[in-house]
Amino acid sequence: MTLELVVNGRRFREPVEPHVTLLRFLRDQADATDVKYGCGEGVCGACTVLLDGVTVNACSVLAVQAEGARVETVAGLGENGWLHPLQQELVERGAVQCGFCTPGVVLGSLEAVRLGLAGDRPTIRRSLAGNLCRCTGYRKIVDAVEAYRDREGPAS
Amino acid sequence: MIPRPFEYERPGSVEEAVSVLAAAGGRDAKLIAGGQSLVPMLSLGLARPDVLVDVSRLELDGIEAVEGRVRVGATTRHRTLELDPDVRSLLPLAAEAARHVGNPRVRNRGTFGGSLAHADPAAELPVVAVAHGGEIVAHGPGGARRIPLGEFFLGYLETALAPDEVLVAAELELLSEGSGVGFHEEAQRADDFALACAAAIVEPDGQARVVVGGVGDRPLRFDGVPGELAAAVESAIEPEEDAFVSAAFRRRLAGVCARRALAHAREDAAA
Amino acid sequence: MSVVRDRPARFVGRALVRHDAVEKVAGRTRYAADFGLPGMLQAALKRADLPHARLLRVDTSAAEAVPGVASILTAKDVPENTVWVDVPGQTFRVGALKARMNVLADGVVRYHGEPIAIVAAETEEAALAAVELIDVDYEELPVVTDPGAALEDGAPSVHEEGNLLASWQLHEGDIDAALDGAHAVVEQSYETQAVDHAYLEPEAGVAWLDSGDVITVRAATQVIEHFRDLARILRVPDNRVRVIAPYVGGGFGGKEDMTVEPFLALVVRRTGRPVKMVWSRSESLLAREKRHPMKLRYRTACDAEGRLVAQDIVIVADGGAYALLSALVLLYATTCSQGPYACPNVRIDARVAYTNHTPASAMRGFGAMQVALGYEGQMDLLAAELGLDPLELRRRNFVERGDTLAVGQTLDTHVALPELADRVEAALGPKPEPSVPERRVGRGVACNLQPYGRCVWLNDWASGWVGFELDGTLVVRIGVPDIGGGQASSLVQLAGEVLGVDPADVVIHIGDSALTPLTGTTTATRQLYMSGNAVLQAAGELREELRPLAAELLETEPDEVEFADGSVRSGVRRVPFRDLIGAAAKREVPWHRLSIFRAPGGDAWRSDASWRGRVFPDFTYGCHAVDLEVDPETGHVEVLRYVAAHDVGRAINPQSVEGQIEGAVVMGLGYALSERVVYEDAVNLTGTFAQYLIPTAVEAPEIEPIVVESGEGLGPFSARGIGEPPVGPVAPAVAGALADALGRRLTVLPFTPECVAEA
User: Fold this and answer.
1) The CATH number of domain B63-173, selected from 3.90.1150.10, 2.60.120.620, 3.30.870.10, 3.30.465.10
2) Residue A78 pLDDT
3) Which helix or strand (DSSP H or E) is residue C644 part of?
């Protein structure tokens, strides 16, 4: 089958087998290696991407199901080499250690703030339950999301 | 780690989907909507269908009140149930239960119809559907068919749907004015599969029902007087034992979930 | 060690942004699996379906016929089919005191998931299809599932030499007399479970044949020195193998032993083509080595004032099917089994046995953390027996500088435990009330010691290169693998500090066994100590080499020269590094320096009962406290507050130190409450993240790290290591808090809701 979709503003028109997940397509055919394989089960969130503006686990979507869609990954954030304010907060607050969970954390947190689901620390944590991290203990991630929300996000 | 190859069809209508399923013959054809249960199973090698029939783009979403019932379209996303304020007022029980389904990524993609058709006994939405009562609307080669919810869930990952039928909606009984609802789940971590869950409805006349999930091969419904229901649940159920969780503990949790769901429901009714 | 002039540090001690954080948050970092080469093959392993069986027949013919299969390798295709792990002290020997296992199983498999064959194919589909077609005839052998049972007469053998992997018995003082005459004696058994590292990045790597016929492996690893092990397996000279470690997505000891490396190297050797292998999460959970489960039996006695007079300790650890680092883990456990408490009479009987479980090896804490459940539980029990506050009882027993642990290890540096305990107590405040009457709140405290730096007789060393480019910019080259703990950025901070360059302007090249000076393993909480000192030395020596020339250019005395702000300065005069290095180049004054830091050595350890001596260079001490709320009906535990105090000597980057503490505490909470590898007759049932439960952001509490800087540590600027230490006190603190809440002590990990609810 031929798949047409847009990844971070770049148009792709590629042959793809139906059994290929969106995760594998992005990594192998769209060079979006910022989308990580962590579990393949939809539990860890390392493969979080935006699919038509909504976060999904790319490992749990077939590429063919993204026909005609707009996919955004963390590499598409920020402009002209500048970091997005949430990325800035994560970096400045020491919330990035091995960094493997980080792309998923960025996209998951942005959605949480956008939807008003980051009103307090427990709610932020609840919104991040699908982004596993083994290094940071989460505290500095929550600090960063809170700071970003106060700085830029809609009031919740 | 990667799914085994299969054929893929994306029918443009329910009728077309039904024909594709019917034409599969002896081959294993499965429907896919949100894919949040199915795609991980494909990746883990736990499901190896020959054909996948994608119904996710059939416009089967939407929630509307229809003659004493609420019709929930099959492709309604869990996230809509969780966050949409109109849905919250029409289906407060479903809205509450939807919060517990997987994580936000799963909820963004997973569908109500998919959850019902998949029929995992630990899933939240089947429990809610059975608590409401009503009918499943399915389309097959013979046209539309209505299956009462009390007869829909047959066993572990097994429903009354025929292999060539597509679930298009559930029509849930609207709750009477003055009734209250409650939902409670016990899972080890926030977004995990439920160890046990319960949906409870208390009617204005004091009658109640509670449906428990995760402790049998399908949602189990108990009707009666609120004060006695939790004990009835605990004594009647026969949960599975596995290497991770004992049957006795599941039984205990089922009782706790039932009790707490009923307590929420009574508070909700009084409010 | 070079001496830094006495002035406040410019960069050390500041919460600087890590240089790697920016690329990671932007998704630009290329981890091991994010890399590829044209013509690359995909490799997959055929793994054993049974935990103990003879391989009567391994038939790859059907698999070889799958279109796209390039090569299938079994034991006979491995030139030297042995992985040697240098392990002092295990009791059976093959050759000279080395633990061994096969690269590919040869005639027998001993654990569920043991690799039997490698398939390399053009696509992942072909590789996996071929793996499924490899036909194995097994003859099932009796399965050993319990280390205690494994050590009894008549138990089935995992290895011909018997099931005792390693043991150490020692007796200091007169334990029986001390127990007899004691004021109070408490006896308890404790049990810890197998857990998994569960790093977010599964094992992965790519290998290829580079010029000079150098087999190059770019893999997620904590040890680039494995190039030597690969060379031995391939029977090629060491200089024909190169290992590159990109940034690693978490290690925690799980990427310390080789993972994908030998399989990749074998395929490259056979096919000449590049090859990639990424393990699935299931594979990783099923078959990657685990933390040693331990059964501990403690008898602990004290006098009327609560001072310890006796510790009688029995340790039986489950080493799984192959030795790997088990004997070393046992050594760590034994040495630390009395805890940070002085005690004149100590008897320890420690053994680790083979079973058919997944081989156990390194994991953060490395044996010294499991025993904390025992020694801290005992202190709580004694405190209760004497009616003393748990922290008070501990205070009366803390080791001090100059004390000696039973194994003969003297403690030469400051022991900050009293201060740590004070700080924790001050932070806690009154115990909170339950949120609803049906729930119960409990408070627990725990202290620990964890070594940093390798065993002294291993004569550890580390080398690093620091140098300028001709334009005056600063470069560090060092083999350190960075597994997320800021291993590389600490070095950047140190080099910048010594040479007066903003760390943001320093470039560091790491992790290449052919191109960067070797610095040893990223394990044993040793990198800040070892690499840090190597870089400190190199930078300091370089500075002193340049000082005379700088003085000349500045027309001043050498000791008036300051290195700061990317230049050398004296008063108002300033020469930028660019000009200094330009002058150095003309004068043949070196502008780079390679330096080797050697840790102090020690007498070789022997596992006989009479050996006494120094095992470790030093320790990091900690004191933690936790308040938690229990729902007795459901067993649900909510951690309300967590306070963790450690003396880190000097915090090179305080934010990084906090991050290590916070991450380790959450890992410890998973260990305490929800993580376990579940076996049934040695078949591992825990194959998904839905079954193996690591804490999410919801289970993780608001952690309050308390960083104490005593100014005494062996690392650069007197730092101590902090990677492993904070994981140790967590389970004991939780155990104490649960006992406080429930009125009954739980002693078998993990404390799942089912265990807690029954109480």
Assistant:
1) 3.30.465.10
2) 81
3) strand C636-647
CB–CB of B189 and C757 under 8 A?
no
> Do A75 and C690 count as a contact with CB atoms less than 8 A apart?
no
Q: Where in chain A is the domain with CATH 3.10.20.30?
A: 2-75
Hey, what CATH topology would domain B180-270 get?
Enolase-like; domain 1 (3.30.390)
Amino acid at C494: L
In terms of DSSP bridges, do strands C241-244 and C275-278 run parallel, antiparallel, or are they unpaired? Answer: unpaired
Please state, in angstroms and rounded to a whole number, the distance separating the CA atoms of residues B56 and B53: 9
Q: How far apart are CA B30 and CA B145, in angstroms?
A: 19
d(CA C432, CA C628): 9
My answer on whether C259 and C367 are in the same domain is no
Look at residue C330 and tell me if it is in a domain. Answer: yes
Q: What is the CATH number of domain A85-151?
A: 1.10.150.120
**ipTM of the prediction:** 0.97
Distance between C278 CA and the closest CA of chain A, angstroms: 9
Tell me which residue in B39, B103, B189 faces A62 most closely, judged by beta carbons.
B39
- As averages over each run of 10 residues, the pLDDT of chain C (759 residues) reads 56 94 96 97 98 98 98 98 71 48 96 98 98 98 97 94 91 96 97 98 98 97 95 96 98 96 98 98 97 98 97 98 92 97 97 97 97 98 97 98 96 97 95 96 98 91 97 97 95 97 97 96 93 97 97 96 96 96 94 96 83 95 98 96 97 97 98 98 97 97 97 96 97 98 97 89
CA gap C118, C130 in Å, rounded? 10
Distance of CA B193 to the CA centre of its chain: 13
Number of domains in chain C: 3
All residue ranges of chain B with pLDDT < 50 are none
Residue from B109, C410, C340 nearest A49 by CA: B109
The domain in which residue C572 lies consists of 19-30+461-598
Min Cα distance B79 → chain A (Å) is 10
Contact yes or no for C757 and B249 at CB 8 A: yes
The two three-digit tokens of residue C352, written as one number: 């680790």
CATH 3.30.420.270 fits A2-75, yes or no: no
Contact A40/B43, CB-based, under 8 Å?
Answer: yes
DSSP state of C318: E
CA C540/CA C4 separation, integer angstroms: 8
Per residue in B131-173, pLDDT (tens digit) is 999 999 999 999 999 999 999 999 999 999 999 999 999 999 9
- Both tokens assigned to C62: 């059907």
The answer to whether the beta carbons of residues C558 and C551 sit under 8 Å apart is yes
Q: Which of C278, C633, C699 minimises the CB distance to B189? A: C699
Q: Cβ contact (<8 Å) for A62 and B52? A: yes
Closest CA to C77 of C213, C233, C240: C233
CA C255 to chain centre: 9
The whole-angstrom separation of Cα C59 and Cα C137 is: 8
Residue C358 gets the label, from left (phi > 0), alpha (psi -120 to 50) or beta, of beta
Q: How far is CA C585 from the centre of its chain?
A: 42
Sign of CA dihedral A77, A78, A79, A85: positive
Max CA distance (Å), chain C:
83
A92 touching chain C per CB within 8 A = yes
Other CB atoms within 10 A of residue C307 CB: 15
Cis peptide before C88 (omega within 30 of 0): no
Q: Show the beta-strand stretches assigned E in C390-460.
A: 440-452
Cβ <8 Å between C665 and A101: no
- Contact between C708 and C648 under an 8 Å Cβ cutoff? The reply is yes
- Picking from C273, C344, C324, the residue whose alpha carbon sits closest to that of residue C110 is C324
Does the CB of C689 have a partner CB in chain A at under 8 Å?
yes
Q: Which helix (H) or strand (E) holds B140?
A: strand B134-140
